[in-house]
Design a protein that fits this description.
6 strands; about 180 residues; alpha/beta
Length: about 180
């Protein structure tokens, strides 16, 4: 019998509504081999509630997992709408870090500020993902600067200011 253990990481994806959290999770699930190549999978697979499907927004936080190398990554897809902030706060108590997703055109918006402030207060290390870089009005460098300013405004500590940045097109599944 083997004593080997699988390293496990628990992360939450946080963002303003419509910045692409659920679409990013869909891409991660597809690329991680969670689904068979011949398996038909609906878009926004994490939106299971009828109201979520109808409105195209996440209302309840949900979790899934992907494998990356020898690690298992548990992912919590959180709501982006301000009305569901309690759901985000609850999810942040269960994770080791956050993926802060920001739209490359819109930049950080009010809910971005809220969810990031809660993550920083919890001492969670962030990874910044600038999404929708394929849009004609994308401005990734300006958005990066705006996010960095937001971190400073929220009194992020030195370690939290040293966040990695990933540029993505969640719909295409590219980074």
């Amino acid at each position: 019998m083997s004593n080997a253990t699988t390293p496990i990481r628990n992360i939450a994806i946080i963002a303003h509504v419509d910045h692409g959290k659920t679409t990013l999770v869909d891409a991660l699930l597809r690329q991680s081999g969670t689904f068979r190549a011949n398996e038909a999978v609906a878009e926004r697979v994490m939106d299971s509630n009828e109201l979520e499907k109808e409105r195209g927004i996440t209302i309840l936080a949900k979790n899934t997992a992907v494998h990356y190398g020898d690690s298992k990554i548990n992912i919590v897809d959180t709501p982006g709408h301000a009305d569901f902030g309690g759901e985000v706060e609850r999810a942040l108590k269960m994770v080791d870090g956050v993926v802060l997703l920001v739209d490359a055109s819109e930049g950080p918006l009010p809910q971005t500020r809220y969810v990031l402030s809660k993550a920083l207060e919890a001492g969670l290390p962030p990874i910044l993902v600038i999404n929708k870089i394929d849009r004609p009005d994308a401005r990734p460098q300006e958005v990066l600067n705006e996010v960095y300013d937001l971190f400073i405004d929220l009194d992020a500590d030195e370690s939290q200011l040293e966040f990695p940045v990933v540029y993505t097109n969640g719909k295409a599944g590219t980074a």
